[in-house]
Design a protein that fits this description.
The structure holds two protein chains of two kinds. By secondary structure, chain A is mainly α. Chain A has 45 helices and no strands. Chain B has seven helices and seven strands; from the N terminus they run ββαβαββαααββαα. In chain B, the strands form two sheets. In chain B, strands 2-1-5-4-3 form a five-stranded antiparallel sheet, sandwiched between helices. Chain B has a two-stranded antiparallel ribbon with strand order 6-7. The chains are: A mainly alpha, B alpha+beta. The interface between A and B is large, with 85 and 77 residues. Chain B: It is found in: Endomembrane system.
Amino acid sequence: MFEKSLYDLIKGLRGHKGGENEYIQSSLRECKAEIKTQDMDKKATALLKLIYLEMFGYDMSWASFHVLEVMSSAKYLQKRVGYLGAVQSFRPDTEVLMLATNLLKKDIVTSSIPNMSLPLITLPHIITPSLAMSLLPDLLSRLSHSSPVVRKKTVVCLYRLALVYPEALKLAWPKIKDHLMDDQEDGSVTTAAINVVCELGWRRPHDFLPLAPRFFELLVDSGNNWMAIKLIKLFATLTPLEPRLTRKLLRPLTNIIQTTSAMSLLYECINGIIQGGILDGEENLQERDEVATLCVGKLRGMIVMDSDPNLKYVALLALNRIVATHPTLVSMQQDVIMDCLDDADVSIRLQALELAAGMVSSDSLQLVVNRLLDQLQRASVPAAEFVESPESPNAPTLWPSDYQTDVIHRILDLCSQKNYSEILDFEWYVAVLVQLVGLLPPLESEDDWAHPKEQEAIPNVRMNAALRIGTEIRNVAVRVKGVRMEATRAAESLIFVDNRSTFFPSGSTIGDGVLGPIAWVVGEYAEYLLSPNGTLMSLIDISNASLPSRTLPLFLQAIPKVFVQISQTSQQGDFWKSEMSLLLARVVEFLEVLAAHPDLDVQERAIEFLEVLRLAAEALTSDSQEIPFLLAEVIPNLFTGLELNPVATSAQRKVVLPDSLRLEEAFNHDLPGLFHNLESLSSYESKSWETSDFYHLPELSSPNKQGRDLALVDLQPHASYQNFTDAPVESSTAVQRRMLERRERFKDDPFYIAPSGESSGMSTPFHEALNTSNGEVLDIDSIPIVDLKLGNEKLSHVDFDRQRSRRIPVGKLVVAGDETFETPISLTDTSRPKGTGDDHPTYKRSLLQVDSSSLGNLPLAKGPYPQVSADEGDAEMARAMQQVEEVRLRMQRASERIQLEGTPAEGTLVKKKKKTKKHIASDGDVGTVTEKLAESAIGKKKKRKKKAQESEKLPGEN
Amino acid sequence: MINAVLVFNNNGQPRLTKFYTQLDTQTQQSLIAQIYRLVAQRPASACNFLPLPPLLSQGASSSASGPSDAPTQITYRTYATLSFIMISTSTESPLALIDLIQVFVEALDRMFENVCELDLIFGYETMHAVLGEMIVGGVVVETHIEKIIAGVRAQEGALGKKKAVQAASTSLGRGALPGLGAWR
């Protein structure tokens, strides 16, 4: 039999276009057979092929034992294949590694340099603490090997050893330091040592401070740019600890910046100056500013002079770091940064955008935003026109819509930062917001809609752009009284049905997010509306009924508010009544549509207002010339009262919970059983339940609506159903009872307006009449609306005025801040101790991350090193040997089992993309897929048979 | 440190994968696929830095100011049909990494004499050897081309060249990687 070499495998792969998978499967089967032979050549070739296929995702973990066999080969090239196999295929759970200890020991101390290099470059990939412990002495001896090749690799290898076994660093560091201090040492070894120190440096900068003079020497004299870059990176972590270093470094760094031709070194110098905090200190300001100016000048040069996008990118990156400390210096470069905003490369544009956000001031804000707006406008036009020829030279490159969305978010970030403190002209801002609505990119991703309420609660989380624009308009209307009228009119223009097609050209769903907050604005500030009638018509346009159920409640709240506005402002003449009746009829018509809305919130609000307005319409039909009391007083009073002010999102959390509130206590301990009962009941009753009843009997307390009702149900079983059946008879008392309950429940809730006299100032004869007629003895006056005395001494003074008293300079409009309480210390987050970098090492570990946190706590004592005592070491060794023996036995048993049963003939392909697989299967390849499934289901007998067939077939092929 | 070195061609087929941490094969493959998607989107004129793909951005700390163990930079360079990718932490300089890729490619060019994708497919072991001379355990140990070449030659003598000659004899056509001397 003649085996395929790697060369043949690859050629075969290229020859089987389309049928690669089958070819690979058959190759894997061959490899499996070949790797079990005693012939080392065959074994190594088979392993090499497996490693090649592993690169494409074909698992080879089953071959780990054979990898060890090949590693132990006497021939160098075979050995190399074995080591490569170990690097590429060993995983943390590969157990055979324990068997390799002796082999690795032997190879580390071999006389041949290439042989010795193999374990040195392989160990970093496979090292474990126990392996590190047993190999450490051998590796340490390699540090003094005569060849620099061995020394440099050993230095790095020891570093990786130290990551899993920190003790190693304690023993290795003195030797590495000797190499570092030695002037005669080979340059490569020094560089490797510096690279390692640079990795260690940020973990434990204190240990390397004493070496600073040597580093300095290397930086100035070596002339090796690679090493200089690393040294500068290292110094950036050292200077914060030793301010005196700053002065020493300033000159050579400046020198390098001025003279070097290597852009990478120049960039790292500037970066080092920034990150090392050299620009941040207080003393000798003159020199610092000079350096800062020099840096910024050089960075500007990198952006302007070179057409290299990489330099542009890193320069912007560096400027982004400077902007925190020297915003004025950076904003002087505004012109070039602005040009980068138009760059063809998205990465550069995003960096420039971030930079723009960092450097804006009151003066430059309008400029920046207008420029971004221009960009958006240009982007949205060609998107439609240049679809056929996106490559045409002058047309701006087509931007992905997520970039456009990002720009919109940035504009809003820019303007709203620091509670709008940078905005001088709010009328301009309102105009910008209206413009932005028209520029919303199509294909807004729908993911953002998932939890809109939580997102609104956390301002940092990116909301849907449309929703955010709407929210901004609302914010401006609420916070800035000076432009409330303009904001309301802007909202009005957006809400007009006729305008909607122009503002949201590419489909109706995009702007839906805007409509919600805007509807609130037109309702709340209806007195500023230009045309209340038109607005009302737009609000009750029948097309609105299809809006998302999140937006509709806001519409529903706005409708009566605007209606009240109309009813109060329109002329009290003969036509007034008929006009109002007409309007009411229209509104009622719209509300009726929503009264059957599937969303409960929408339904509830619609029905509430529907009933109230029906009453109003009824009142209008009376003959008297007077305006019905309901329309003149009652309904308007629903919406007037205290002005709404912005409340800080954290304010709610600071309200101390009353003692009587028990959030932890279950309503009912047998909740599942309760639901079970209800379900069986409802299924029983459902025959008599008409759907229309469900929708049109709003007073019915639906049992699974509220937990509180469930508690009631528990006390008097089937109470709600009783109510239902007895409804016609009992309704009045039941309603009474429920009203009372409700009133009681919400008496402390500031958002429910209790019918009390003094506190709200809206007690009316109507209420009294109602109350007396009901015959209820209820001390309504004792129910406060807002109980500001929270019963807590600490909280007793509510700091509403703190924010407001922050007077903004004359000429600027007053922006209302968020209202919040004085913070009791015990409740704030600041009381939590600030963790240092080492305190939270792994709570969110990134992929590919090499954890070096264990190094941070290790003392690199300069005195006598606390050696691992001999006994301890021996015991450890014995334990390790025992483990090795165990694993060896297990492996042996496992390999015997394999011999008996035979592993599945197919190598398992680790799937890269499940979707495409499925797709292929559905395309008509179902046959092969099912075949495979069947194949794996068939017992070992058939497999053997198949193998036999194949081995018969193969010689013929070759 | 450098967390991974990847080479794949224009179709996303891997030509070299080297992860300096142990990672299961499935994750490796999906990471390669994600990075390939990012690289494939970029025009030739764009800069050589990639944003983090979803797999990597999960754990990365948002405060990128100080150094950390998490990889934060992805540098790539495309030569003809091949893209070379280096994933690294912030302790590496981005511009130096571009140079390092250049050194890697130049060293391969020296080993294979006018290197092309086919050479690297067939000279797969040699490519690993070259990388092994340059980077050990994610730390750069050598940037000097002569020394890298000498190290590889010491390992395999004329073997690497022999393979290249073999590959050249196939009729699949060779095109050298252009732009070798273009940068710097």
